[in-house]
Design brief:
three-stranded antiparallel sheet; alpha+beta; four-stranded mixed sheet
């Protein structure tokens, strides 16, 4: 589930999150017109993202709240509608296993590997190789989304059940948690999520660490998640 959303699909800025400190600016926000917040800066160092040794934590991680029963496991694939950015190394791995992906695809999906990814690569230090590329998007969503709104890359990964073999893009597994500009955020797309999934509820009793434990562990690893939990208690 989930995605690091294509730039063109960002219809709201992160600070539109009602539950997030209004002084928090995303890395791609426009010029500020008021004073910057003096809130403490939390930096994680025990996580397993080796390409980002100092991972700053945005206030959205601490301030976003959810209603009881909210969980990413209730995902309906809405977050897959606009494609995702992935490391170019993973793109190459997917293409190397194109036969497995093609067999998992529904009849109406595009089975031509040349149409699965955008042609232009981007420089982005949030990815391990420093470069990323987007998946192609069709009328029904990401090219890898089948008729039942299931990710065929995830289906292949589960079917193969090989240690270390994972074709699902990092930010899909992380959603609604994301990394942008070297910082940990809650993705703005969760504002459009269905109720019961990962849409925030201002004033709700549950925190990000309560609702998104699996996703945070995917991004940070066990030690990084423990470090974040400690910071959340302070």
């Amino acid at each position: 589930m989930g995605a690091r959303i294509e730039d063109g699909a960002r219809t709201r800025v992160f600070r539109a999150l009602e539950a997030v400190d209004g002084e928090s600016d995303p890395p791609d926000a426009g010029p500020r017109t008021g004073p910057r917040s003096t809130e403490r800066r939390v930096v994680l160092r025990r996580h397993h993202l080796s390409h980002l040794p100092r991972l700053e934590v945005n206030a959205s991680i601490f301030e976003t709240r959810y209603a009881p029963g909210s969980s990413p496991v209730h995902c309906d694939g809405m977050c897959c509608s606009n494609g995702v950015k992935l490391d170019v190394a993973l793109r190459d791995q997917i293409l190397a296993n194109a036969d497995l992906v093609q067999r998992a695809m529904a009849p109406q999906q595009d089975r031509d590997p040349s149409g699965w990814f955008e042609e232009t690569e981007e420089v982005d230090p949030d990815f391990p190789s420093g470069r990323c590329v987007g998946t192609q998007v069709r009328e029904t969503g990401c090219v890898f989304l089948d008729a039942e709104r299931r990710c065929v890359l995830q289906s292949v990964t589960i079917a193969e059940a090989r240690p270390g073999f994972d074709l699902k893009p990092f930010f899909c597994s992380a959603f609604p948690v994301t990394v942008s500009g070297g910082a940990l955020w809650i993705d703005e797309l969760c504002l459009e999520a269905p109720g019961g999934c990962c849409r925030p509820t201002p004033g709700g009793p549950l925190r990000v660490v309560d609702v998104c434990e699996t996703e945070l562990r995917h991004v940070l690893g066990n030690e990084g998640l423990d470090e974040l939990r400690l910071a959340a208690r302070e």
